[in-house]
């Protein structure tokens, strides 16, 4: 979104062992205070039971386990990078730099670029939901942005809490 370079979302996913969380923003006012996207993003950062808080290793960067991106259902001209919620611009690495390339916009000239009707209809994904992709790039789940409890429960079934050892988890 920030450089308006047409690229398919899947081409930015690296084989780095992280889970991918793609939040599909509500089309009206996606980054406005009180929007579903803003509430979801704030919850991922601040809620003690969010998957990020529960499973990210202590002292690790926010994006160490989860690669969290946002997809806006409008063109890049209609969205300001600086209005993107913090969870999509987290600081990481030795220089604590914000990664502004975690926000994506649709290209209205190319309906196949992000086809909300096709991908949503065939996979049952909400037009304003969170899509979970496993580290092996397999679609693992889809949740409405309002179902943060369901998302947290999903990850409790797949990941150990930060700091837990396999011996502790087995007992």
Key phrases:
171 residues, alpha/beta, Glutaredoxin, five-stranded mixed sheet, two-stranded antiparallel ribbon, 5 helices, 7 strands
Write up what this structure looks like.
The chain is of the alpha/beta class and 171 residues long. It has a single domain (18-159), classed as Phenol hydroxylase, C-terminal dimerisation domain (Glutaredoxin). The protein is 22% helix and 18% strand. It contains 5 helices and 7 strands. The protein has helices at 36-46, 51-55, 116-123, 148-156, 166-170; strands spanning 19-24, 66-72, 91-92, 97-98, 103-105, 129-133, 139-144.
Tertiary shape: globular
Could you give the order of the helices and strands? EHHEEEEHEEHH
Corresponding CATH architecture: 3-Layer(aba) Sandwich
Proportion of beta-strand residues: 15-25%
CATH superfamily: Phenol hydroxylase, C-terminal dimerisation domain
User: CATH topology, anyone?
Assistant: Glutaredoxin
State the domain count. 1
Mean pLDDT: 79
For the largest sheet, list the strands in their spatial order.
5-2-1-6-7
Unreliable residue runs? none
Sheet with the most strands, sense and barrel status:
5 strands, mixed
Per DSSP, the total helix count is 5
Number of strands: 7
SS-based class: alpha/beta
Helix fraction? 10-25%
- Evaluate the radius of gyration: 16 Å
Euclidean distance between termini CA atoms: 46 Å
Supply the CATH class: Alpha Beta
Provide a compact summary of the structure:
The chain is α/β, with parallel strands linked by helices.
